[in-house]
Amino acid sequence: MGCCSFEGLPPEKAKAAATLLVVAVGVSLVGLYLKSGGDQFSFTEWCRRLRRKKKRPVRVYMDGCFDMMHYGHCNALRQARALGDELVVGVVSDAEIIANKGPPVTPLHERLIMVSAVKWVDEVISDAPYAITEEFMRKLFDEYNIDYIIHGDDPCVLPDGTDAYALAKKAGRYKQIKRTEGVSSTDIVGRMLLCTRERSVSENRKNSSLQRQFSHGHGQKLEDGGSGTGTGTRVSHFLPTSRRIVQFSNGKGPGQDARIVYIDGAFDLFHAGHVEILRIARGLGDFLLVGIHNDQTVSAKRGAHRPIMNLHERSLSVLACRYVDEVIIGAPWEVSKDMLTTFNISLVVHGSVAESKDFQEEHSNPYAVPISMGIFKVLDSPLDITTSTIIRRIVSNHEAYLKRNEKKAASEKKYYDNKTYLADD
Prior knowledge:
Structural class: alpha/beta
Region (Disordered): 200-234
Number of helices: 17
CATH architecture of the largest domain: 3-Layer(aba) Sandwich
CATH class of the largest domain: Alpha Beta
EC number: 2.7.7.14
Domain Cytidyltransferase-like: 61-190, 262-393
Family: Belongs to the cytidylyltransferase family.
Number of domains: 3
Pathway: Phospholipid metabolism; phosphatidylethanolamine biosynthesis; phosphatidylethanolamine from ethanolamine: step 2/3; Lipid metabolism
Strand content: 5-15%
CATH superfamily of the largest domain: HUPs
CATH topology of the largest domain: Rossmann fold
């Protein structure tokens, strides 16, 4: 019997008890109303606001270009989501990016795919303005029920030198998160230009000059490409921690009878093509396990100057995808019988669009075992995009991207020179 049940009482007494209960609740509400300064609006309105306040989730808004989306973007969205119950993300239009920064590397429809796939994002607004205007801010507050507007601790300055978030700060509806160390779009552009060896010697010298401007004044670092040649050149300032990996992980394994689907790859410069094939793969089972090849394997298969993003950077980008349940960090090139048994894999898949078709060559087929077991499937890739596609976009228009990033590189250098410690979650 419930605590407010009048079962077993005569009808007259039950009715009287119910009346007393209603009166008691009403008196309590009136007391709270008067205590809160109830002369400001009607009691009915106050009750409505009380119900709304208790039920309505805190909604936060973050916007951005999200061009060449990387784990730094994803970590910003993770931090923003932690400041509320629901995260709404505005993706700036191509026209606005061109007007304020220069041409984007990835067009709007690809950027929308990327942002929508981040597991901390609840809603996406397409064609968001680059600056928070009074009109758009009111729309966020009134139509989207936004409580706070979020941005990183690095400055966002408009072409006229003003703060893009000045109005939100003035309204008292602004919150700040910590910028993710070790990565930015300008860094990644520089890595691509520096790592490309399809150009002439003179052009490579120009790329080196570009890299110095893209690397925020940290200086160039020559690192072993992982293929044993010692000629690999990559610049990465990412400092991986176990805590960051845990923050990005789902923390849940497959159920006892789950159908586990496995897909592997380099997932370098994580892009919309990757997202779409992962979405399809996840739809074929209950749990998607993604194998991410280590730097040495990628270098051996793609060339000494790949991958552009290192193993941990690539792992975080994949982990942030809502279609991915778990990753193997440094997965083997060949899918063995022991591996299939260890992870209880039901199906192994591969996209039809890839950097190479090594698996189709009999003498070096990494999927020979799952093929022989009848559990291998090639999936039709919805988008004809590879990592090389992204690199070609940059290299073919590097002068435009140099101009686009000159001011950004200077502002980021200033940020690093003057930054102070800011705790995150």
